[in-house]
Structure formats: structure tokens, C-alpha cells
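User: I'm curious whether this sequence folds into something compact or stays loose and floppy. Could you predict its structure so I can see for myself?
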Amino acid sequence: MNQYIATFHTHLAALTTARALGAEGIRAKMMPVPRRLSSSCGTCVRYEAGEACLPAMDGDVERVYEIGAEDQYVLLMENK
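Assistant: Here's the prediction. I'll summarize afterward.
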């Protein structure tokens, strides 16, 4: 399993995504965005899955990162 962080433009988008991932059986939790990442709303969703689950993201997703070794963040997707 890989770990991911998704950042959002709004808190509602983060909540919607956390619920959508949970409905798919993926454990996801909302949390403050790590300092090394920037986000419009300051809230992210951290989850663990076999893949990035991009179709489950709310349309207001800002970025999706894979968390690598030593907490390195690899940008997978950016929505401007």
C-alpha cells in the first residue's frame, strides 16, 4: 500500500473526498496540510491505497502527492 496526501481549494472539497474514499473502503483522514506543502484551505486528506484513486477526488482538488521514503512528497496531479 502507498500513502497519499491530497490538498484542496476548499474545506468542503476535502470533506467530500474523505467521504468518497471511505465509501470505497479506503481509510482516509482529514488533517492540516504539512508545512512543506501549500494549500488554499489548509486542510488535506491523507489516505493509504494501492493507487492514487484520482477518480474519487472532488473537482476542487488542488494537488495529489504520493508520500515516499523519508516523507518525500512526489507530485502526481495538479489541478489549477
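Summary: The longest strand covers residues 2-8. The radius of gyration is 11 Å.
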